[in-house]
């Protein structure tokens, strides 16, 4: 490798150009006054290589940089999107003729062989550089920032708690609440909401929108007398642990339960379970069983009658879903709606049941669960991709009728609000996308 430190404009010199063309790594530029990068050079992989002052080295393919040019002719800042809509507009073999740091605006200026000039900010290059899978992440199957929990959240002061009115009026508080749900514990109590119906649309508008499904924009949950209830949730019987709407192709990301009236006396409490904690324990004690639950598609099905009519929903997904870095992204669990469709070879069925039964046992361990009875005016908000819940049996008495309203947010709505709030507050987004 020939190491040369030159100013960008000197690349026009014929003798220097010959030297650069004859070297394996062709150094394009260095501005000594620029404190972010030491130099920029081409390599044999058709990339511009940036060596930063912090010691890191990043490669940016020529075709990638050209296709992502940030100039007004190629990119519209108003829509945050490129204006070139046809891949044919970019030459696959495009090459940078020269590159230089513009110290006045802290941008990398690249002159292309097609006569075009592009500018890329230091922040853009750092943010969009290639990151190998798992970089900056902890070992194991949990994403960075995940906080596992269990019985300790039942103790006074341990559960993440927010105030309803503050969420409506304070952007920083709203941001903390959404990050708590999406990244950290996946569960939070919201206190002092009005003890009356129709509060969920108010919170929904604050975040973005409530997720509509077969039950409507949100729905009311009261026990239905007799045998007319189409789902066990509409009875006063014990409700086993589950994640909500497992039968929908697009399950909601966040579940919001608003307690308007609670059953007096015993009963009506909820069991909250950290599904990620159970999955992580399974991975640590039996990686093979963990992989079986990751790799086996399971069918969930529901035929129900709601105020909006009859619906027949079905979905297929694994009990544990992982992302592209093989980190836990979603836990799906509901014995009520798990179908009897066989999605695995018969010879492997016993192994699936072994893994499934063990995962079920782990979720009932006090180390990863706790009981909590909501009070009127409380909202329990949970990440439906992670937190399971159950309900103890209860009795309605006279004018005391347990009454909750239930609403959902979809994942796109939650992530969009987190990104916007982070940008408005001038802080880095905690999301990996």
From TrEMBL:
<dbReference type="InterPro" id="IPR042098">
    <property type="entry name" value="TauD-like_sf"/>
</dbReference>
<dbReference type="GO" id="GO:0005739">
    <property type="term" value="C:mitochondrion"/>
</dbReference>
<dbReference type="GO" id="GO:0016706">
    <property type="term" value="F:2-oxoglutarate-dependent dioxygenase activity"/>
</dbReference>
<dbReference type="InterPro" id="IPR050411">
    <property type="entry name" value="AlphaKG_dependent_hydroxylases"/>
</dbReference>
<feature type="domain" description="Gamma-butyrobetaine hydroxylase-like N-terminal">
    <location>
        <begin position="42"/>
        <end position="125"/>
    </location>
</feature>
<comment type="similarity">
    <text>Belongs to the gamma-BBH/TMLD family.</text>
</comment>
<protein>
    <submittedName>
        <fullName>Gamma-butyrobetaine dioxygenase-like isoform X2</fullName>
    </submittedName>
</protein>
<dbReference type="GO" id="GO:0045329">
    <property type="term" value="P:carnitine biosynthetic process"/>
</dbReference>
<feature type="domain" description="TauD/TfdA-like">
    <location>
        <begin position="152"/>
        <end position="398"/>
    </location>
</feature>
<keyword id="KW-0479">Metal-binding</keyword>
<keyword id="KW-0408">Iron</keyword>
<comment type="pathway">
    <text>Amine and polyamine biosynthesis; carnitine biosynthesis.</text>
</comment>
<dbReference type="Pfam" id="PF06155">
    <property type="entry name" value="GBBH-like_N"/>
</dbReference>
<keyword id="KW-0124">Carnitine biosynthesis</keyword>
<keyword id="KW-0560">Oxidoreductase</keyword>
<dbReference type="InterPro" id="IPR038492">
    <property type="entry name" value="GBBH-like_N_sf"/>
</dbReference>
<dbReference type="InterPro" id="IPR010376">
    <property type="entry name" value="GBBH-like_N"/>
</dbReference>
<dbReference type="InterPro" id="IPR003819">
    <property type="entry name" value="TauD/TfdA-like"/>
</dbReference>
<dbReference type="Pfam" id="PF02668">
    <property type="entry name" value="TauD"/>
</dbReference>
<keyword id="KW-0223">Dioxygenase</keyword>
<dbReference type="GO" id="GO:0046872">
    <property type="term" value="F:metal ion binding"/>
</dbReference>
